[in-house]
Design goal:
- With 308 residues, the chain is mainly α.
- The chain has a domain at 2-99 and 110-141 and 148-232.
- The chain is built from nine helices and no strands.
- It has helices at residues 2-25, 29-55, 63-99, 115-133, 150-178, 181-197, 206-227, 232-243, 285-307.
- Helix 2 packs antiparallel against helix 3 (63-99), helix 3 (63-99) packs across helix 6 and helix 4 packs antiparallel against helix 5.
- The longest helix has 37 residues, at 63-99.
């Protein structure tokens, strides 16, 4: 039973990210590289947070201090990761084109927003794996006055943070591309708020902390849609037209997407086009008739000269 609970809680926490990896990331080697790089950047931020927590001895007893600076390091390295991706985007695009056997097909812009999966998964692994290791036994949660919902609430909290990391990465990347500073500030504030809410868990106030976490997740998700220029009216009209069996309506307005940064390069290569050969006469029929009449006239003149 303990192992069943272990795998069940693991799937609760990491199920959506695992599905996203299998369906979206695993088929593209470039996205795998981006995800692993994001994991590395998160680990470096954790390392620096640990070093700072070890050096500042008087503040070791204050959990608020460690959490705050850990969040600051995470968001700093998230921004640094954005800068690194933008610098390496051209090279990654060339690698992707070479991997497709030199195809002339125009490839879409690299989807770097999925790097949030790397941040979220590494955050979830370090926050939950040690807790779930105790779920395999021996012992049962709740015998010593603890809550029997401890593992379930920990898994739900980890799931919320993984999804929040994905949303935070999308918001940060889109905001940095467009120069929208309020949304960048929203990422930092919401990250601090989500982490401070977990301070209610030691008091076993799970009925308050878990709904607050997911309420913040819903708000962050709506902000993510706003940053991605998602329009609910277009989605509802498209869904209604498809559901009615009429397909996509011809009156649906298609909003053009104009990149705010970098260049859109279209590779055009000229090719020879073979056509059916057609033989054209060098002389027209009228010209041939004129020449024939002229020759007959010259012959008549020669005959008249010979008779004289």
């Amino acid at each position: 039973m303990a192992y069943l609970e272990f795998f069940g809680y693991c799937l609760i926490a990491f199920g959506p990210s695992l599905a996203m990896f299998c369906l979206v990331i695993a088929n593209d080697p470039i996205r795998i590289i981006i995800m692993i790089s994001a994991c590395f950047f998160w680990l470096v931020s954790l390392l620096l947070s640990s070093i700072l927590w070890t050096i500042v001895v008087p503040l070791k007893e204050y959990l608020l201090f460690g959490v705050t600076f850990s969040i600051l390091f995470q968001e700093t390295f998230r921004y640094l990761f954005y800068q690194v991706l933008r610098k390496a985007e051209t090279g990654l695009q060339k690698v992707a084109e070479v991997g497709r056997n030199g195809s002339n097909e125009i490839q879409p812009k690299l989807d770097t927003n999925l790097s949030g999966v790397g941040f979220g998964v590494m955050s979830g692994v370090f926050s939950l794996i040690n807790i779930l290791a105790d779920a395999t036994g021996p012992g049962t949660v709740g015998l010593d006055g603890g809550s029997t919902y401890f593992f379930l609430c920990a898994s739900l909290t980890t799931l919320a943070f993984i999804l929040l990391h994905i949303c935070w990465t999308i918001i940060l990347f889109k905001s940095c591309d467009s120069g929208n500073k309020p949304f960048i500030l929203f990422v930092l504030i919401s990250h601090l708020a989500a982490s401070y809410i977990t301070f209610l868990n030691p008091s076993k106030l799970y009925a308050i902390s878990i709904p607050m976490q997911y309420l913040l997740l819903v708000i962050t998700f709506l902000v993510t849609l706003k940053c991605a220029d998602f329009r609910f009216d277009q989605f509802s009209s498209s869904a209604s037209s498809i559901g009615g069996g009429g397909g996509i309506s011809s009156h649906t307005e298609i909003k053009p997407i104009i990149p705010s940064q970098h260049l859109v390069i279209i590779d055009e290569r000229p090719y020879f086009v073979l056509c059916k050969p057609k033989l054209l006469p060098l002389k027209s029929i009228a010209l041939l008739q004129v020449e024939s009449i002229q020759r007959e006239a010259e012959e008549k003149i020669k005959l008249m000269q010979q008779k004289q």
